[in-house]
Design goal:
The protein is of the alpha/beta class and about 240 residues long. It is about 45% helix and about 15% strand. The protein is globular and about 50 Å long. The structure holds pyridoxal-5'-phosphate.
Length: about 240
C-alpha cells in the first residue's frame, strides 16, 4: 500500500470513529473537528493528509513549524500550536501564521503574547489549557484557578479566547480518562456561567488517538489525532510537550 492510501485509510477510520461516537451520544458529526497532531511528521506526509482533505494541523514545537513552513505554504491550511510555548518563541509562532494557540495556561504567557501582538499589529485566537489530571504535571492551569485566569486574559485586547483544551490522563483506565474530559466540560459550563465580556467557549479541544470516543461522548468539539493516522513516534509524548528539551 502506498503512503497516501495508508494515510487516507487511517483518516477515514478516525472519521468513522468520530461519527459513531457522535451517533451514540446524540450529537451531529459536524460538531467535532479533526485536528492532525503532526509532531515529527514530515512535510511530505502532512501534504498527503492535505490531499486526503484534512487541512487543520497542530504542532508542538516552534522549530518544527519553522522547518515545515515553506514546504506547506503552497497549500492553504490552518495551523494551531498545541505544545508548551516558551516566551522567547512567541515571535516565531506569530511570524508563521499560527491561527490559534491551544496551550495558554498562565497570565505571564498571555501578557507576553499581547505585547508581541501589539508590536506586530496582529490578533490571535487561543484556548486555555487546563490540567484535568489532578496530578502535579507542569502544564495547564489548575481547575480552581481557571475562571480567574480567563477573566485576566479576557482583558488583553489582542487575544481572543475561544474555548478550553486539555490533554488528560495517560491511562488505559477508561473511567479515569473520562473523568478528565468530563471535568473540562463542567469547567466550560462554569466559565460560560460567569458571562465574561468577549470570552467565547465554543471549542473544547480534547481526545487523542486512544480515547477519542470518550472525549466525543463528553462533549469534545475538536479531537487531536496523531498516532492513529501517521503511526507511532520515536520519542515518548513527554518529550514533545516540553519545549525546553
Ligand atoms: C501528540 C499530541 C496529540 C495526539 O496524540 P496521539 O496519541 O498521537 O493521537 C494530541 N494532543 C497533543 C497536545 C499532543 O502533543
Amino acid at each position: 500500500m502506498d503512503r497516501l492510501t495508508e494515510i487516507t485509510n487511517n483518516i477515514n477510520k478516525i472519521l468513522k470513529r468520530i461519527d459513531a461516537a457522535c451517533i451514540r451520544s446524540g450529537r451531529s458529526a459536524d460538531e467535532v473537528k479533526l485536528l492532525l497532531a503532526t509532531k515529527t511528521v514530515s512535510a511530505e506526509n502532512i501534504k498527503l493528509a492535505f490531499d486526503a482533505g484534512q487541512l487543520l494541523i497542530g504542532e508542538n514545537k516552534v522549530q518544527e513549524i519553522i522547518q515545515k513552513y515553506d514546504s506547506l505554504s503552497d497549500i492553504e491550511h490552518e495551523t494551531h500550536f498545541i505544545g508548551h510555548l516558551q516566551s522567547n518563541k512567541i515571535k516565531d509562532v506569530l511570524r508563521h501564521n499560527v491561527s490559534c494557540i491551544q496551550s495558554v495556561d498562565s497570565l505571564k504567557l498571555a501578557t507576553g503574547l499581547q505585547n508581541k501582538l501589539e508590536l506586530y499589529d496582529k490578533d490571535i485566537d487561543i484556548l486555555i489549557q487546563v490540567n484535568t489530571t489532578n496530578e502535579n504535571t507542569k502544564f495547564g492551569v489548575s481547575p480552581s484557578e481557571l475562571v480567574k485566569l480567563v477573566k485576566e486574559v479576557a482583558l488583553l485586547d489582542r487575544i481572543h479566547i475561544k474555548g478550553l483544551m486539555t490533554i488528560g490522563l495517560f491511562s488505559s483506565d477508561a473511567a479515569k480518562v473520562r473523568s478528565c474530559y468530563r471535568l473540562l466540560k463542567k469547567l466550560q459550563l462554569e466559565v460560560i456561567d460567569e458571562n465574561i465580556d468577549k470570552v467565547e467557549m465554543g471549542i473544547l479541544s480534547m481526545g487523542m488517538s486512544d480515547h477519542l470516543e470518550i472525549a466525543v461522548e463528553e462533549g469534545s468539539t475538536m479531537v487531536r489525532v496523531g498516532t492513529a493516522i501517521f503511526g507511532k513516534r520515536v520519542y515518548p509524548d513527554s518529550y514533545y510537550w516540553n519545549e525546553e528539551k
